[in-house]
Amino acid sequence: MDPFLALLLSFSQRLSANELTSLKFLCRDKIGKRKLEAVQSGMELFNILLEQQLIASNKVSFLEGLLENIKREDLVLQLKQFVEDGKVKSPDDLPDVHERPIEVICENVGRDWKMLMRKLGMSEVKMERIVAANPFNLQEQLVQSLREWQNWKGKDAKVLDLIKALRACKMNLVADRVEH
């Protein structure tokens, strides 16, 4: 079975009727009106997008844009995971969307990000790989390290763990902001 098709099926099953309507609206300039009116499920829409070669397992930017526009960050994260790993992960294996205070941490943690990641259990090798991939962008190093931690922990990536690690690093102000 094609893992990308399995991913699309998973997305289809998790879309609400309103989200499907929004996706159809966003596809108006790519798909004819008659075809769109006949679409009753996410799978039907994804089928059309596949047929028109707007999406494929190696061409996901259009799909990512659609999901971002309907504010389904959980599906965007799962899509990015698929691209990175080449396999579908269960939604239960991904961190909870509401437990991702990455923005708060990135806005408030600077050069001490490695100390935080060590407290979270990340290896030096992984951190050095992230630094090598983003040599002149401190913020991106932090974002990528937090994403790596989330991917590693999966559904066990909890805000409470981040708060404990921040407090252990004497970053209490950041921890307070994450709590709120």
From TrEMBL:
Pfam families assigned to the protein according to its UniProt record, in alphabetical order: Death, DED
GO molecular function, one term: caspase binding
InterPro entries registered for this protein in UniProt: DEATH-like_dom_sf, Death_dom, DED_dom, FADD
Keyword Cytoplasm: yes
Keywords assigned by UniProt, alphabetized: Apoptosis, Cytoplasm, Immunity, Innate immunity, Phosphoprotein
Record localization: Cytoplasm
Ranges for domain Death: 98-180
Stretches assigned to the DED domain: 3-81
GO annotation terms (biological process): extrinsic apoptotic signaling pathway; innate immune response; positive regulation of cytokine production; positive regulation of extrinsic apoptotic signaling pathway; positive regulation of innate immune response
GO cellular component labels: CD95 death-inducing signaling complex; cytoplasm
Task performed by this protein: Apoptotic adapter molecule that recruits caspases CASP8 or CASP10 to the activated FAS/CD95 or TNFRSF1A/TNFR-1 receptors. The resulting aggregate called the death-inducing signaling complex (DISC) performs CASP8 proteolytic activation. Active CASP8 initiates the subsequent cascade of caspases mediating apoptosis. Involved in interferon-mediated antiviral immune response, playing a role in the positive regulation of interferon signaling.
Quaternary structure, from the entry: Can self-associate. Component of the AIM2 PANoptosome complex, a multiprotein complex that drives inflammatory cell death (PANoptosis). Component of the death-induced signaling complex (DISC) composed of cell surface receptor FAS/CD95 or TNFRSF1A, adapter protein FADD and the CASP8 protease; recruitment of CASP8 to the complex is required for processing of CASP8 into the p18 and p10 subunits. Interacts (via death domain) with FAS (via death domain).
Protein name: FAS-associated death domain protein
